[in-house]
Amino acid sequence: MPHMSQQGRDAVRAVHHQIGNSLQSVASLLNLESRSAPPEAATVLSEAGRRIRTVMRLHQRLQETDGDVVRLDDLLGDVCRDVAELDAMDRDAEIRVDIQPFCARSRTASALALITAELVGNALEHGLAKQAGVVEVSLRATEGGACLTVRDNGAGAADGQLKAGFGLSLVSRLAHQLGAQLKQTSGAGGTHFELTCRNLWWDSSCV
Description:
There is one protein chain. Helices cover 51% and strands 24% of the residues. It is of the alpha+beta class and 207 residues long. The chain folds into two domains: 1-64; 68-206, Heat Shock Protein 90, CATH 3.30.565. A five-stranded mixed sheet has the order 2-4-5-7-6, covered by helices on one side. α2 packs antiparallel against α3 and α2 packs antiparallel against α4 (106-127). The longest helix is centred in the first third of the chain and has 31 residues, at 6-36. It starts with 5 loop residues before the first helix and ends in a 5-residue tail after the last strand.
């Protein structure tokens, strides 16, 4: 990769700062609109605002990385904390994170972070909406890759079929872009997602 001049780096930082400001403006507008909207529309607007704020924080974190390689244990742990902080409801929920030291290119890391945010948010919003519980997030080595797991012990789907909303559709599209395999189960014991991805590698410096 050619060396970027100081002027070029300043220009890139200015662009990213503008993107961050734009995302903040959109999130603030959605929050404002949700206050005067009917209950059903307010819920949709609030969820959209949460997603925008999650993307905004993810964008900020990725700009702090050195180069195109991202440590996933750092990034995904931060994303889980962001989702908990941005949750509008005061839920009695615990998020447990166990991410092994994998690395990925920034594009792959960004997609995995968005998938994690959606699955954790979905667990809080639906699985633990009316009861206390735990959300467990893990990333562990598999043969030739890694498996991201997000599970909760909340109210799963009675018929085993989760309602296909925007969030799950987004997860499916991102998994397809990664060439990853996505599995899901849901029932009386809660909901369980597994995403198997091969575009990751172990950080040998942590051994």
